[in-house]
Amino acid sequence: MTKASALPIEVRGSAKQPLGMSPAQFLRDYWQKRPLLIRQAFPDFVSPIEPDELAGLALEETALSRLIIHDESRDRWKVKSGPLTEKDFASTPNKNWTLLVQDVDKWDADVAALLEDFRFLPSWRLDDIMVSYAEPGGGVGPHVDQYDVFLLQGLGQRHWAIDTNPDAPKDFRPDVELKQLKVFEPDHEWMLEPGDMLYLPPGVPHDGTAFGGPCLTISVGMRAPSQAELTGDLADYLAERLPDELRYTDPDLAPTKSAGEIDRAALARLRGALPFAASLDDTTLTDWFGRFITRYRNAQVPVAPEKELTEAALRKQLDGGAHLLRHPWARMAWARGKRGATLFVNGHAYPAAAELAERLCDARELAPGKSVADTELAVLLILVNDGHLVVHKPRRR
What we know:
2 domains, three-stranded antiparallel beta sheet, ten-stranded mixed beta sheet
């Protein structure tokens, strides 16, 4: 096995080996592991699509396109999503703008033919071919993609910079519509010519900028669903196929010591009812179930008061003998944690002391009195201002 430190980050391709090596070697040493620049992956390459054709495609109603203009002097970015118009192109400056069109392989057979060179990958892993055209200085700024991508230079030159530091910061700028990185400190830079190709695995910060003249880059992107997408779709798939009579059951139920507590026995029953939840830790399973069960089959939700109470105002009312009533639509449960407890109310989670959470779940009316601690008061204030508890002043006889 070749040591990672000995692996080159730049190789030369050929007509027989566009990757500069065999597909097996590329998959072993680079795929989803490290970047690779392949000089002349496609020798004498001629772009299968011209800039005018790409602009024409961007005018189509169903084409996915974006026009991105960078005001360099003020560092402001303007993004317009398609369908674009001829007027949009007529008003572009002489530099610092780019056109991105996705799924070009679905529209153009010559572009789609490029996928033949990527048949060493499962076809279901291929997502689309995006083509970008840029005038000098054009680009989308430093960013991170969460999928594998092959960046093939089709026309002109593009300067690429990447940061291979695995601990590079990934925070985004809050002032830009694009997901641009706040900090970008590249450790490799190249100028790509037509036929050169840069492979980037997921999570590598990079920035590409057109240089010298018009530039066209062909991006072959991979389909990489997130774990959240996979989990959500699997849950929907299973839910559609499970019969309604299969339910959470508790034939082993013993008299409860605390009516609102989600205890360890309940978690064990959940794992039995949900086989794919067996790998979840107690904290995650409890947090999900507490949120779920307190909003399950709830027809209404409490409405927050028009005017929020302050902590001082709530303490004054409680000191004066006011009680706290649970709103009729407020559904509560609680669970012990490593530190304290969590109170679940209508799908929301609130950190709370176990004693307070238990009292709130057990009683529909609470009379805290003057002895309420500041930590308890803070929790009660949130619940009042969220509408789950209502301040009630008992009538004097």
